[in-house]
Design goal:
Largest sheet: none
Number of domains: 1
Radius of gyration: 14 Å
Structural class: mainly alpha
Number of strands: 0
């Protein structure tokens, strides 16, 4: 559930970018639907985990997926400093999940 939530939020973020400030109806409707789906999946997933772990896990995974989508789909750059920051987020997620 939590992975699905992160994927929905990340994909919705790309569609938010493509909505051009809410001026394009199809991407706007799609990102709103994905955000509702993501929030619903996250709410369901948080039934089993502690709030702090589940919420931060979704945010962290969303960061990783968003960076990958921004690089490979939107063709944005990935400077070394940004890559290192993402790796720190991944390390934090792993650490948090093992506590």
């Amino acid at each position: 559930m939590l992975v699905g939530a992160a994927l929905a939020f990340s994909t919705g973020g790309v569609l938010m970018k493509l909505s051009n400030g809410l001026s394009r109806p199809v991407p706007t409707a799609a990102f709103l639907a994905l955000f509702i789906l993501g929030a619903s999946l996250q709410a369901l997933g948080m039934r089993r985990d502690d709030f702090s772990v589940a919420y931060i896990f979704v945010l962290g995974l969303e960061v990783v997926v968003t960076v990958l989508l921004s690089v490979f789909y939107l063709h944005e750059s990935l400077p070394l400093s940004r890559l290192c920051a993402v790796l720190l987020v991944v390390a934090g997620i792993v650490w948090l999940r093992t506590t």
